């Protein structure tokens, strides 16, 4: 039986205010269903999208609110560390440690990470690890949520139908989350071990790897700004995502895919020749895919890795070189050209001196091409 939006019990809750006609009827149906499943009026009122409440419960949120002090005392994690980890994952800042503002599921989400301190990890490193994990997982979570919404939507779907469909998807997907994320994190750790080997000097000094010689490259889409004026934002975003896909398809160890920056991707490698061959593959892949043309800048020098990103002169220089590289080409700085040498299969153009923004002296740039078979 359809819910009556004028039923005194539902009307008295004040959850139908400012909802006219069909929207009022649909919300009344949803509220009756939620109440019957154990959700209370305050939970419904505080949720921006009440149709997602059942899915939230599947993901561990039972509606219980706790304080940071409660979690600290029950877990044995110091209040100071708990508060820092909560800030790292973006949880709401409570008025004080005794304010019950956090769901139990949210408040306890950082407890496993806190145990890394007991293993000897520094607090600052643990906080950074948690923040980076949250940064990476947020994009994946948003994409999964959007995929679930698309899978549930159909013309004329009511709020109740969507709530039921999304809850069913959450119930099917929740058991897969741990088995999906854990092997990927192990994969990332194994690859980081390969690329961050500690050398003899560092072992003797007892310090972590510092600045080292690496090649850095940026590849960006030519005419991306103009393209944004011609196609809808959704299609423009797909073009940028496709560039990242192409880069992942051509990258193999020891080359690292570092990040996507708008319409560009960043790659690094301790072997400048391997990086050069990879970016040439990327330019060819874009051309074969009927994709907007790419331009690439590659530099070589000393840089440092911090939290998975790279900083230093070759990174800045490679970014500047990219801005002056002609469409469909790879431009290489002189130190990188020297480090690469003259391998078979590579042709070099005559050096060209260029003034680059933010660089005081002229920079010699070489064009790199694959020699025809």
- How much is the radius of gyration in Å? 27 Å
Oligomer: single chain
Shape estimate: globular
Uncertain runs with pLDDT below 50, 5 residues or more?
197-202
The run of helices and strands is HHHHEHHEHHHHHEHHEEHEEHEHEEE
Strand portion? 15-25%
The overall pLDDT average reads 85
Structural classification: alpha+beta
Helix percent reads: 40-55%
Number of strands: 11
Distance between the termini: 75 Å
Structure commentary:
By secondary structure, the chain is α+β, with helices and mostly antiparallel strands. 52% of the residues lie in helices and 16% in strands. The chain has 16 helices and 11 strands. Strand 10 and strand 11 (363-370) form a beta hairpin. Helix 8 (111-118) runs antiparallel to helix 9 (123-152). The radius of gyration is 27 Å and the shape is globular. Mean pLDDT is 85; it is low at 197-202.
Relevant terms:
single chain; alpha+beta; 16 helices
How does the SSE layout of this entry go?
Blueprint lengths: L7 H4 L9 H16 L4 H6 L6 H6 L6 E2 L1 H8 L3 H10 L13 E2 H5 L2 H8 L4 H30 L6 H37 L4 H6 L6 E10 L2 H5 L4 H18 L5 E6 L2 E6 L2 H17 L5 E13 L2 E4 H12 L5 E4 H7 L5 E3 L3 E3 L8 E8 L3
Parallel strand pairs: 6-8
Antiparallel strand pairs: 1-2, 3-5, 3-6, 4-5, 6-7, 8-11, 9-11, 10-11
Helix pairs in contact: 6-9, 8-9, 13-14
């Amino acid at each position: 039986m359809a819910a009556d939006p004028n039923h005194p019990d539902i009307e008295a809750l004040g959850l139908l205010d400012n909802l006219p006609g069909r929207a009022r009827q649909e919300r009344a149906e949803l509220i009756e269903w939620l109440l019957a499943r154990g959700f209370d009026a305050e939970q419904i009122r505080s949720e921006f999208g009440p149709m997602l409440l059942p899915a939230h419960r599947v993901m561990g949120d039972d509606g219980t609110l706790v304080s940071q002090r409660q979690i600290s005392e029950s877990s044995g994690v110091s209040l100071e560390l708990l508060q820092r980890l909560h800030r790292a994952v973006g949880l709401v800042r409570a008025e004080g440690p005794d304010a019950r503002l956090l769901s139990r599921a949210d408040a306890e989400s950082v407890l496993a990470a806190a145990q890394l301190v007991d293993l000897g990890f520094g607090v600052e490193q643990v906080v950074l690890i948690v923040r980076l994990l949250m940064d990476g997982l947020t994009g994946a979570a948003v994409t999964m949520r959007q995929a679930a919404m698309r899978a549930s939507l159909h013309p004329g779907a009511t709020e109740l139908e969507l709530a039921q469909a999304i809850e069913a998807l959450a119930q099917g997907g929740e058991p897969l989350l741990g088995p999906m994320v854990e092997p990927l994190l192990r994969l990332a750790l194994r690859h980081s071990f390969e690329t961050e080997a500690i050398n003899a000097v560092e072992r003797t000094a007892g310090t972590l790897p510092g600045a080292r010689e690496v090649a850095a490259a940026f590849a960006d889409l030519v005419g991306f700004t103009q393209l944004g004026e011609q196609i809808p934002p959704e299609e423009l975003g797909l073009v940028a995502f496709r560039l990242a896909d192409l880069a992942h398809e051509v990258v193999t160890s020891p080359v690292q895919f570092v990040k996507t920056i708008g319409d560009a991707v960043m790659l690094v490698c301790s072997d400048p020749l391997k990086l050069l061959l990879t970016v040439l593959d990327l330019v060819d892949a874009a051309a074969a895919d009927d994709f907007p043309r790419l331009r690439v800048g590659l530099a070589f020098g000393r840089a440092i890795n911090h939290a998975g990103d790279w900083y230093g002169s070759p990174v800045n220089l490679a970014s500047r070189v990219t801005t002056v590289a002609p469409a469909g080409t790879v431009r290489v700085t002189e130190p990188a050209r020297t480090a690469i040498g003259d391998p078979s299969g590579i042709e070099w153009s005559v050096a060209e001196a260029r003034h680059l923004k933010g660089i005081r002296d002229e920079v010699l740039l070489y064009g790199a091409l694959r020699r025809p078979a």
